[in-house]
Amino acid sequence: MFQVKAKIIQNKQVKKNFFHLLVDAPEIAGKALPGQFLNIKVSDNLEPLLRRPLGVHRVSKNNIAMLYEVVGNGTQILSQRKAGEYLDIIGPLGNGFDYQSPVTCHLSPVLVAGGMGVAPLLFLADFLAHSKSFKSLVFIGAKTKSQLTCVQEFRELGCKVKIATDDGSMGFKGRVSDLLTHFLQATGDRRQATIFSCGPRPMLKAVSEISRKFKIPAQISLEEHMSCGIGACMGCVVQTTSGYKRICKEGPVFHADEIVWEREK
């Protein structure tokens, strides 16, 4: 873990309320793994007081990219930061996706993203494509076509992409978890697949249930508001089968069968 003053290379709006942030942070870039996140001080003063956690979207030799949506005061302030300015960043933080265990390293990756869940999963797909020559099967869900992101980027990595929108404006009409279910029902041999997923809690709960139903191992990345980001404040705990765990420290990635969803809101 490092705390650095990272120079902003680019902070570009890519869609309505969606921004691509690129910073120069070689120390963090050299250590970041898919599924980990950064904790960012979005301003140079005490407003807002808390940092904002953003998942690592892509990494090059010295640079780290993040994809974020403006949803509140903190990300609104971040969206106004300019190239050439500096951000106080702590990272990489948390435990990322386990893609090297005996259970997963020989299985075909199935990536399931809802909304901004595409951000860390693109980093995972990029890593798998270049380090293990895996071409992931990617399911992307959004409310409507205009909110879909990273579709072309996944395809450029050689991934096969399947799309679901709530309103049917592109691809399958309905939830991405329903699209995943339809696909698995139509697939003969499901034993060679492993699921990696990131997105809203209801979607992750559905993916976990699908994982159990079809007996496919799954890892899910939980999104949560965080205060400290380093496990000290206990403000982002989730109940698991082995007790409460901190999303920022033991997570954000968990095996799907660890989470006790009945206690979730």
Q: Care to give the gist of this entry?
A:
This protein has 265 residues and is of the alpha/beta class. 21% of the residues lie in helices and 34% in strands. A hairpin with a 2-residue loop joins strand 1 and strand 2.
Q: Rg, please?
A: 18 Å
**Helix count, DSSP H or I runs of 4 or more residues:** 6
In what order do the strands lie side by side in the largest sheet? 4-3-7-1-2-6-5
Q: Order of helices and strands, N to C?
A: EEHEEEEHEEHEHEEHEHEEEE
Q: Which oligomeric form is depicted?
A: single chain
Helix content: 10-25%
Could you give a short account of the major beta sheet? 7 strands, antiparallel
Average pLDDT rating:
93
Q: Count of DSSP E strands?
A: 16
Rounded to the nearest angstrom, the distance between the terminal CA atoms is 31 Å
Low-confidence stretches: none
Structural class: alpha/beta
Shape call: globular
The fraction of residues assigned to DSSP E strands is 25-35%
What does this structure look like?
The chain has 265 residues and is α/β, with parallel strands linked by helices. 21% of the residues lie in helices and 34% in strands. The strands form three sheets. Strands 4-3-7-1-2-6-5 form a seven-stranded antiparallel β-sheet. It has a seven-stranded mixed β-sheet with strand order 11-10-9-8-12-13-16, with helices on both faces. Strands 14-15 form a two-stranded antiparallel ribbon. Strand 8 (108-114), helix 3 (118-131) and strand 9 form a beta-alpha-beta unit. Helix 5 (176-186) runs parallel beside helix 6 (201-214). It is globular, with a radius of gyration of 18 Å. The mean pLDDT is 93.
